[in-house]
Specification:
197 residues; mainly alpha; two-stranded antiparallel sheet; 6 helices; 2 strands
Amino acid sequence: MSTQAQIAANRVNAQQSTGPKSEVGKAISCQNNLRHGFTGGFRVLRWEDAEEFSQLSRDLAEEHKPATPTETLLVTQMAQAWWLRTRALVLQNTCFTEGSVDQKQLALYLRYQTTHERAFHKSLNQLLKLRAEKRKIEIGFESRQLKQSRAREQAEELARRQAVEKRKQELHNMKLETGEHQIPGRIQRIIAAENAA
């Protein structure tokens, strides 16, 4: 059991050690427990090549050509997941020493490898699904427009056929009329109407 003097001394000491106060000190201390970089925010570690990660990101962006912010995020997630998967493969090699294997670390790195492989494929599948849905919407819109224009063309063709049939019927009726029942100039008006159409 602690005495009152020990408790008071502990409180005084606790006030003197409250951790880093500057932003630089806080940034450094937040890395104190960094062992492999698989958890927390993504970062390229000191022993890794940052330019190589940038090249991977550029290559994926060039291949998939993201057109929206969502597609850009998915491509970024793909690059990060693949980078972490590769890191897990590299760290697996450190588990093997002469005559022994660190089973616990190897199992951990294998788990991270498969986790990040799944994350890569999930992001890729989401990107492809998003694009397929966008394509379906575009095709559906074009298909609807095409159907409307075909219906309009069919209606116009039907109207033309009906007009031609009506003219034929009128000409036929005129031939049946006798000379005394003919309306003067009727044939000329019908022929002029056909020529105008």
